[in-house]
Automatic annotation (TrEMBL):
Residues 45-253 form the DUF58 domain. It comes from Pedobacter mendelii. It holds the Pfam family DUF58. This is DUF58 domain-containing protein. InterPro entries: DUF58, vWFA_dom_sf.
Length: 295
C-alpha cells in the first residue's frame, strides 16, 4: 500500500472518491467501524465479575459451566459527527513540484471522510475562504459522502482566510461534542486561525490540526527564484536564498515550535505534514486521536 499512499500516485488519480477508497481499503483492511466496550448487541468478550458490576450482565450459562461469575461484554458503535475543515485561502495554492497544498489537503480530507463514513460516523465539510464559509451539515449516508467529494473537488483557493466575525455562525445549536479535523497551512495575518481554534475549544469539540507545509518551504529551495510573491496580498520581496537559508530555517523551527506549544496549551492534537509525505502517517494520527474520543 505504500505506493498508493504516495501523494504523486494518489494525485494521478483524478477522482477523489476512487483515490480515497483505494487508500482506506488498503490501509484499514479488516477495520470498518469504531467501537468501545460496553452493553450492546454484538458479543465481544467475557471478563470476571467485579464488585459493583451490573448483575443483569452476568452470564448464567458460563456460571453453570465454570461455577464462576462472568460479565458478558458487547460492542456498541460510537457514531459521532466528524467535520472536515479546509483552508481554501490563496496561500493554499502554493506549489512544490507537480502539486499544491490544496491538492494534498483535498486528498487527505477525502481519505479521512471516507474512513469516518466507513466507521459509521456522520461527515460534514466546512471550507474557509474570503468572507464566507461553505458548509455541509454532517450526515451518514453514501450519497452525502459523494456530494462531499464533489465539493472537495470544486474547491479553488482564493483570497484570504475567513474573518473571525463569521466564526460565531459555525456551530450554533450544536449540543453534541464532535471531532473536527482542520487542514490548513496556518497562514494568517492577525491570528484569525488561532481565534477560530479558540472558538472551537469553547464549544468543547475535539480538534485535530494538520498543518500542511511544502518541502521547498522547509528547505527554502525554490530552484533559482529570487523574487517571492505573497499569494494573498500580492506583495513581493527579493531574497538571496543561499545567504538567507540558515537564518530562515532557524526562524522557521522557532515558529513551528511556538505553534506546537500554542496547540498543546489548547489541548489540540497538532502535527505538521509535508506535501511529499505519504498519507499513512496522517491516517495513523487520525486513528490515534479517534481512539481517545469518548462521547
Amino acid at each position: 500500500m505504500s505506493k498508493l499512499l504516495d501523494p504523486k500516485v494518489l494525485m494521478a488519480i483524478k477522482e477523489l472518491s476512487l483515490s480515497a477508497k483505494m487508500t482506506i481499503d488498503g490501509f484499514m483492511s479488516g477495520i470498518n467501524k469504531s467501537t468501545i466496550k460496553g452493553g450492546g448487541l454484538e458479543f465481544s468478550q467475557y471478563r470476571s465479575y467485579q464488585p459493583g458490576d451490573d448483575l443483569r450482565s452476568l452470564d448464567w450459562k458460563m456460571f453453570a459451566r465454570s461455577d464462576r461469575y462472568y460479565i458478558r461484554e458487547s460492542e456498541v458503535e460510537t457514531n459521532i459527527g466528524v467535520r472536515i475543515l479546509i483552508d481554501a485561502s490563496a496561500s493554499m495554492n502554493h506549489s512544490d513540484g507537480d502539486f499544491t497544498k490544496i491538492q494534498y489537503a483535498k486528498y487527505l480530507g477525502a481519505s479521512l471522510a471516507y474512513l469516518a463514513n466507513l466507521q459509521g460516523d456522520a461527515i460534514g465539510l466546512y471550507v474557509f475562504q474570503n468572507s464566507g464559509i461553505f458548509s455541509m451539515t454532517p450526515k451518514q449516508d453514501f450519497q452525502h459522502l459523494a456530494r462531499l467529494f464533489y465539493q472537495l473537488e470544486s474547491i479553488n483557493p482564493d483570497g484570504e482566510f475567513t474573518k473571525p466575525i463569521h466564526y460565531k455562525e459555525l456551530f450554533a445549536g450544536t449540543q453534541k461534542r464532535e471531532l473536527l479535523i482542520f487542514v490548513t497551512d496556518l497562514y494568517q495575518t492577525n491570528d484569525e486561525i488561532i481565534h477560530l481554534l479558540d472558538t472551537l475549544n469553547t464549544l468543547r469539540h475535539e480538534v485535530v490540526v494538520f498543518h500542511v507545509v511544502s518541502r521547498n518551504e522547509l528547505d527554502l529551495d525554490f530552484k533559482g527564484y529570487t523574487t517571492f510573491e505573497d499569494l494573498e496580498t500580492g506583495e513581493t520581496i527579493q531574497i538571496d536564498q543561499a545567504k538567507a537559508r540558515t537564518e530562515y530555517k532557524t526562524k522557521l523551527a522557532n515558529y513551528l515550535e511556538e505553534t506546537r506549544v500554542k496547540m498543546l496549551d489548547r489541548r489540540i492534537f497538532y502535527r505538521t505534514i509535508c506535501t511529499d509525505e505519504p498519507l499513512d502517517q496522517a491516517l495513523r494520527d487520525f486513528l490515534k486521536q479517534r481512539s481517545k474520543l469518548r462521547i
